[in-house]
Amino acid sequence: MSRYEQFHEFRSRLNCRILGSDEARGNGVDGKPNVGATLVTKRFFTLDGQAYQDGALPRKTKELMGLVASMVLRCDDCVAYHIDQCLEIGVSDEELFEVFDVALIVGGSIVIPHLRRGVDFLDSARVARAKGRTPTCPAGGE
Amino acid sequence: MSRYEQFHEFRSRLNCRILGSDEARGNGVDGKPNVGATLVTKRFFTLDGQAYQDGALPRKTKELMGLVASMVLRCDDCVAYHIDQCLEIGVSDEELFEVFDVALIVGGSIVIPHLRRGVDFLDSARVARAKGRTPTCPAGGE
Amino acid sequence: MSRYEQFHEFRSRLNCRILGSDEARGNGVDGKPNVGATLVTKRFFTLDGQAYQDGALPRKTKELMGLVASMVLRCDDCVAYHIDQCLEIGVSDEELFEVFDVALIVGGSIVIPHLRRGVDFLDSARVARAKGRTPTCPAGGE
Amino acid sequence: MSRYEQFHEFRSRLNCRILGSDEARGNGVDGKPNVGATLVTKRFFTLDGQAYQDGALPRKTKELMGLVASMVLRCDDCVAYHIDQCLEIGVSDEELFEVFDVALIVGGSIVIPHLRRGVDFLDSARVARAKGRTPTCPAGGE
Amino acid sequence: MSRYEQFHEFRSRLNCRILGSDEARGNGVDGKPNVGATLVTKRFFTLDGQAYQDGALPRKTKELMGLVASMVLRCDDCVAYHIDQCLEIGVSDEELFEVFDVALIVGGSIVIPHLRRGVDFLDSARVARAKGRTPTCPAGGE
Amino acid sequence: MSRYEQFHEFRSRLNCRILGSDEARGNGVDGKPNVGATLVTKRFFTLDGQAYQDGALPRKTKELMGLVASMVLRCDDCVAYHIDQCLEIGVSDEELFEVFDVALIVGGSIVIPHLRRGVDFLDSARVARAKGRTPTCPAGGE
How far is CA A115 from CA A30, C36, C96, E73, F80, in A? Predict the structure, then answer.
């Protein structure tokens, strides 16, 4: 599995485990359905989706902001998620590398390893998407 | 002095102290010119300015990214600086409050006190700018 | 004004400015009502309140968790807010100093200045509360 | 090896390497015993253990505080360690998911990938513990 | 009071309040001696002092490391404390500005406001020390 | 491949991908040369190298500062990079463990997992270097 597919497989599986129906969450070692997220967590995931919708600012600007925030906070999976969303809405590589500029200047050299892994994910995502693999993520969360 | 003027006064004075000429840096207790920034620091300040210039992405998007990054990293002065830059280029309050949305969702409730101080600065800046006070910051740094 | 009163005055005023009705938000320099928080931000504030209510864990444990999280993330106003909530529900000083232990061990010496300011706020809050000053914060946010 | 066993294997091996006797630390490429932790680091590990003992607050509350602090600081191994400690003292899944609520609200969506990995570790730990595998960690550190 | 004197006054007063004898901690609103730090916190403060003593590395290198760590973690009071310790042991301004270089490059532009406040404190400390004011801090903590 | 070799392989490959010539960056799925770093990012990498050169402070002190900053910011790859640089210039294990002391005290128990992985990398690097494997990293970045 490519890095792109690994990312989506784990993310989808755990989103089901945390947010899904009794059946989707699976059973625990005691044979009963796993305990999943509370209402607070479920509402947070919903709110997370709403924050990136078109409004006074277009969704594209918001995804770029989500990406830069993920980079300066140095969260690889969040970077991967927002890069994938950016590709989904047609952001170019030239634009992405200018997002990386701002993240690097604001966040410093400590961002560099996350930049490397972000570019590695970007290449993996471009390949997967060219092959028509654009997994629809189950709703919820970065 | 309003919060807006305090911000600019301190920022300008210290930028001179750190980046300025021998004269601008002032003398130390030994009567000699204060030691100021090295070439590395000076170049970093220059690079910081270049990262927000129009390119594949417009300056406006980059300022919004700078603002969201400053909020999730919880740096009040950086938030103030980028809000001021946003006003300079005509960003509306509706747009700013959507930047705050993304910062709050990505960064969590820990961002709230910085949101309060950011809005307080915004109000102070709108008043100062309506009166024609738009201090030209000496080049350099958030 | 004591540190305790300053904290509540600023917090209340800005919560009104951000979350309040047209009237409570006040008018901007253009004479129109200030733009305030979006629905996303308002819902986040509501969710923030819900996360600390009694459930499988009692509210007291959640407030202690909110306090320790605020200390390791080094947010003075969040620390002040949670200390005040802890006093509201009868947490003792002995218990608070054990929360400080965990925060110090997890977060390191970088937490110490926030510990000092937290204890200073605690003393100020005990005095204000003994005098019967226990301002009801307008709903919303740390 | 499951995620649970991998976690404990690496943690135990490195704790020996860092804190252990000459023999336990092993030899370096020069054939001499590896250099290990100083007294300062050893004392810090001891202090780390003491911070979670019963006092004015019970150990359970302190472990929950350790877990929430680890989540908002986004340290996967610290999250795994505190989840395992919570299982050891009988914390329920319903309680754990309310700790996740507080972490998510305080720390924001950047916490989500750590929540996913935390739940994945939780499931792995429940399985291992049901099989009677509850490795006694060598003393020391999160 | 200068920034330098304010820093030391608050630090000394709160160190007494937290770490001091019954008398030094003062009485609370109930007329009883204030509750102070636990043994865990007291031992942590002691350990904090030990970490900067001469060893395989000289104290000077350790103070410079403490300063750079404080800058990238963006803790103004920690920066002030370590700058003051650096002056105590004769670190030059040229050396300090190279510490600032590393902090700026590692930590990014988000460090800049802390750099400004650090240089402002440095100037204040040089003046106070030239006048013979070098307050002996009560033992304990950054 | 050892941890040491994996680290260098990924770092070298991605540095080429990001900073290299058209040929070194490789072609994308569209058959055209991959888009690489902008001038801002390239200049930042250059500046990153300059910050650690001999000056008022020797390179060794700067590498130790880079290491401690990487540890308190909890970036495993940055820790690995600076440990490798330290070995390159002859820093002893006794000195490294005193850097770890300062990082642990400043950054707290949250640093412990990074300490474990740092020591694991150190052992891997000592073995690789004893065998004569000291890969020259392509210029650029932590």
Answer: 43, 35, 41, 20, 16
Q: Which of A45, A92, E84, A101 is nearest to F40 (CA)?
A: A101
Angstrom distance (rounded) from CA C134 to CA C4: 10
Q: How far is C32 from chain D (nearest CA, A)?
A: 33
Q: What is the mean pLDDT of chain D?
A: 95
pTM, to two decimals: 0.96
| Spatial CB neighbours of B45, under 8 Å, sequence gap ≥ 6 | B19, B37, B139, B140, B141, E112
pLDDT tens, residue by residue, E71-114: 999 999 999 999 999 999 999 999 999 999 999 999 999 999 99
Could you tell me which chain C residue has the CA closest to the CA of D70? Answer: C106
Q: Which residues of C touch D55 (CB under 8 A)?
A: 94, 98
Whether A128 and A62 share a structural domain: yes
Search chain E and give the residue with CA nearest D46: E40
pLDDT of the residue at D133: 75
Q: Which helix (H) or strand (E) holds D101?
A: helix D93-107
Position B132 scores a pLDDT of 87
- D137 to each of C105, D81, D84, D126, F40, how far by Cα in Å? 19, 10, 10, 17, 47
Does residue F21 lie within any of the structural domains? no
F47 at E interface, C-beta within 8 A = yes
Q: What is the mean pLDDT of chain A?
A: 95
Question: Is E60 in the same domain as E126?
Answer: yes
Determine the distance in angstroms separating the CA of C36 from the nearest CA of chain B, rounded to an integer.
7
**pLDDT tens digits, residue range C99-119?**
999 999 999 999 999 999 999
pLDDT tops 80 at residue C135:
no
pLDDT < 50: residue spans in chain F = none
In this structure, the dihedral spanned by the alpha carbons of residues E45, E47, E53 and E54, taken in order and rounded to 10 degrees, is -170
The answer to whether the CB of B91 falls within 8 A of the CB of B126 is: no
Identify whether D37 is part of a domain.
no
E19 and E69 together in one domain = no
Q: Per-residue b/e over B87-113, b at no fewer than 16 CB within 10 Å? A: beeebebebbbbbbbbbbbbbbbbbbb
Token look-up 């989506």 returns: A8
Q: Per-residue pLDDT tens for E22-69?
A: 999 999 999 999 999 999 999 999 999 999 999 999 999 999 999 999
Domain enclosing residue E1, as ranges: 1-26+36-42
Question: Quick check: C121 pLDDT over 60?
Answer: yes
Res. E7 pLDDT band, cuts 50 70 90: very high
F65 in a structural domain: yes
What's the pLDDT tens digit per position in C12-38? 999 999 999 999 999 999 999 999 999
| In-domain check, residue F109 | yes
- A63 and A10 assigned to the same domain: no
Taking an 8 Å cut-off on Cβ atoms, the answer to whether D41 and F130 are in contact is no
Q: For D35-38, which contacts have Cβ atoms below 8 Å and span 24 or more sequence positions?
A: D35/F92, D35/F93, D35/F94, D35/F96, D35/F97, D36/F97, D37/F97, D37/F100, D38/E55, D38/F97, D38/F98, D38/F100, D38/F101
Contact (CB<8Å) E99/F65:
yes
Quote the minimal CA–CA distance from B1 to chain F in Å: 37
B78, E110 Cβ separation under 8 angstroms: yes
**With an 8 Å Cβ cutoff, is E1 touching chain D?**
no
Ranges under pLDDT 70 in chain B: 134-142
Number of domains in chain F: 1
Question: Is residue E3 located within the same domain as residue E63?
Answer: no
Q: State whether F38 and B47 contact (CB < 8 Å).
A: no
Residue A108's pLDDT is 98
> Which ipTM score applies to this complex?
0.94
CATH code of E93's domain: 1.20.1290.10
**Mutation choice for B interface testing from D110, D112, D114, D115 by most B CBs within 10 A:** D110
